[in-house]
Write a structure and sequence with these properties.
Structural class: alpha/beta
Strand order of the largest sheet: 8-7-6-9-12-17-18
Distance between the termini: 37 Å
Keywords: Amino-acid biosynthesis, Isomerase, Methionine biosynthesis
CATH topology of the largest domain: Rossmann fold
Strand content: 15-25%
CATH superfamily of the largest domain: Translation initiation factor eif-2b, domain 2
CATH class of the largest domain: Alpha Beta
Radius of gyration: 20 Å
Number of strands: 18
EC number: 5.3.1.23
Family: Belongs to the EIF-2B alpha/beta/delta subunits family. MtnA subfamily.
CATH architecture of the largest domain: 3-Layer(aba) Sandwich
Helix content: 40-55%
Number of domains: 2
GO molecular function: isomerase activity
Enzyme class: isomerase
């Protein structure tokens, strides 16, 4: 996407080839900074502390982490070790498992002296594939929004509610949930986005709002609990979220709070769609609530908040009563029965086993 007129991906090989460069998402929305990954430890750290986040970008970063490891030591032992190390960084996003499995299977067949080159080629191909997938998701989702626009008065926007950041910053480019939004905006279809703040890390307020603002998309940041109220008053036409893992039966796992939006949408007859690239589908799982591991992150993310003071300094303050215990589950699961449809690179699917299997038969065979 464009940032102040310059085209960026979220991850790329530096001009001198000495590092893998990323946009440091822990600095948003106060600064736009590039960080360099030179080792597999750098890649693992970037995933763990959320310098990069979003299932597709985590997978791409892991692939580059393997490539950096192969540059340092292309042995079989090094390959197995880096895959195991990176696998432990974030437990919920299935793209991490997918990318590492793909890298290990491909590279183990390559002679050690050629593994570095092969690993970087593979990582780049994963990035290119992600962009192509997201563009296709955007086109299919655009059709849904365009149909809603036909029911509006001339110039009246389609009001879209999203949760967390399933945008350009969560992928290599375009985003998943935001791809249809950007394409509609660029194509002259009026849209307005309700942006959930997404506590506790505020990915909506910090990241999605930043993205939309730089692209010129009209948007309004709201507190997480306002979505149901807006739906009750007819102020939301469609909900589009992303997902970090989708089961073979259509359950979706996304940032904590997504399930509540789906319940509110169901109660108010608001269509609830989930935009997802096929690598987020985990064909080995059927019951998302029981089977998907939910990452429990540090309670400090809840009990503290970072912001910019009136004097312009960035400070972190405590916001929870002293002595209170804090829990921080990072994701929840929305059952398929609450999902109107899945926006994939192969079209809009029903959230059920048959529809998903028919759309991606080759993925189903690989998981068997």
């Amino acid at each position: 996407m464009n940032v102040d007129g310059k085209k960026y991906r979220t991850i790329w090989i530096s001009e001198d080839g000495g590092s893998v460069d990323i946009i440091d998402q822990t600095k948003f929305p106060y600064a736009f900074e590039i960080a360099q990954l030179r080792t597999k430890e750098d890649a693992a750290h970037a995933i763990r502390v959320m310098q990069v986040r979003g299932a597709p970008l985590i997978g791409a970063t892991a692939a580059f982490g393997v490539a950096l490891a192969m540059r340092a030591d292309p042995s079989d032992a090094s390959l197995h070790a880096v895959c195991a190390e990176l696998l432990e960084t974030r437990p919920t996003a299935i793209n991490l498992h997918w990318a590492l499995s793909k890298a290990r299977k491909a590279l183990i067949k390559v002679p050690a002296e050629h593994r570095e080159e092969a690993a970087f080629t593979l990582a780049n191909s994963i990035c290119d594939e992600d962009i192509a997938i997201n563009m296709a998701i955007g086109m299919h989702g655009m059709e849904l929004i365009a149909a809603l626009a036909q029911t509006k008065k001339p110039g009246e926007p389609v009001n879209i509610l999203t949760h967390c950041n399933a945008g350009w910053l969560a992928t290599v480019d375009w985003g998943t949930a935001t791809a249809p939004i950007y394409m509609c905006h660029d194509g002259g279809i009026p849209v307005h986005v309700w942006v959930d703040e997404t506590r506790p890390r505020n990915q909506g307020a910090f990241l999605t709002a930043w993205e939309l603002g730089h692209h010129g998309v009209p948007h309004t940041v709201i507190v997480d609990n306002a979505g149901g109220h807006l739906m009750q008053h007819g102020m939301v036409d469609i909900v589009i979220t992303g997902t970090d893992r989708t089961t073979a039966s259509g359950d979706v796992c996304n940032k904590i709070g997504t399930y509540l939006k789906a319940l509110a949408a169901k109660d108010n007859n608001v269509p609830f769609y989930v935009a997802l690239p096929s690598p987020t589908i985990d064909f080995s799982l059927s019951d998302g609530v029981r089977e998907i591991p939910i990452e429990e992150r540090s309670g400090l993310e809840v009990s503290q908040m970072t912001g910019r003071t009136a004097q312009g300094t960035i400070e972190t303050v405590n916001i929870v009563a002293e002595g209170s215990e804090v829990a921080n589950p990072a994701f929840d699961v929305t059952p398929a029965r609450l999902v109107t449809g899945l926006i994939t690179e192969r079209g809009v699917l029903e959230a059920n086993r048959q529809s998903i299997a028919q759309a991606f038969p080759e993925r189903l065979k690989l998981s068997a």
